[in-house]
Amino acid sequence: MSDEWAALAERIAGHAQNYLDGLTRLAGGEGGDAILPLLLVEVAQVSLAGTQLGAMQDVILQGNVEPVLSEDPDVDPLRTALAARLGPVDDYAEVFDPYKDTAVTPYRLSDDLAAVAADLLHGLRHHRAGRPSEALWWWQYSYFNTWGNHAGAALRALHALVAHTRLDVVEESTVV
To answer: Domain of life here (predicted)?
Structure first.
């Protein structure tokens, strides 16, 4: 593995860990009423890591086989905690693929955020096991296959929610 790719694996691992840590804190109640803009920041930052993976050449593993890992940790408690914190804004509508599948599909922010976490966590496990090539391969593959779409959808939904809270204000009455 080249020094450039090793450095990229370190950067992506840092972004992945920051996302997981931030999501866990927010699901646990940190951030209070600012959960939506803070989630927007978390998703935007990890999306930057994804775009770097999308812009680079394909990572091809030796033998084109991913080494076996034990079962990934369960992210469902995180998803459940996020769903409880998001409450009525958890459900939203999204177009899955604006070029191939233009049907509106129901989504949940908690599902999207947890799906991103699960894919990043899987890659982190490779990285922590000293397999940066496998980590990069997984993050890139899963970015195109799953977590990139979930992060993009969550980013759009969170942006809309934050924008509505800032722009949909009742005009103040003026007293003469």
So the answer is: Bacteria
